[in-house]
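Quick start: what a row looks like.
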Amino acid sequence: MRQLKIIVLIVSAIFVISGCGSSSEPPLSVPTTYSNSFYPLSVGNYWVYAGRLSITDTLMRADVIDTVEFEKNSYFRVVQSYLGALLGQRPDTLRLRFVSPTLLVRYLNGRDSAYIDFGTFANGYGGPRYPGLIAEYPETDSISLGKFDSCKNIIFRGGAEETFSVFAPNIGEIIRYTPGFVLVQAKIEDKIYK
C-alpha cells in the first residue's frame, strides 16, 4: 500500500510539473505598434514638397496608402511620386514600421533595415549600414507653412555623400536638403497644413 501511495505521488508530481492539459506550443505574442511624432504614420497622411530634381522644378508627394503584411509584421506603405520631374522618374514605395518608440525600419529586399533612429546622435557613426541619426536637436526651423520648434536635424550617411533632413514634431519631414525639397502642404490625421 505504501508503494502505491509513492507511485501515485510521483505520477501526480509529473503531471503538475509537465503542466497537464497545457499546450506545448508557446503563446502567440501580439505585435506592439509604436509611433513617433517625428514621422507620423497613419493611413491617409500625406506630405507635398517643392524643390528641384536635376534641372526641373518638381513637386514630390508622399502618401501613406495602406498597411501591408510581410513575415507577420505590419508595415505602412508610403508611395513617393514626382510631378514635373524628368521623364522616367518612377514612384518610390517605402514599407515602414517603428520597432521601438524611436527606431523606424524599412522592409527592403526581404528584411528589415534600419531607416531612421530618432533617439541616437550621429557622433561618429557613419557608413552605408547606419540609419539616419540625429545631427542636431532641438532646433527651430521656419518654412512657408510656419515656425516649428524642437525639430530634429537627421543626417543620412552612406556612399559618397551625406544628406540632411529636418523633422518637426507632429508633422514629419519639413526640409530635405538634398536634393532641396521643402514641405508646402501636408495632411496629418485630420489637420491640413498649407
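That is the whole record. The chain is about 10% helix and 55% strand. The helical segments are 2-18.
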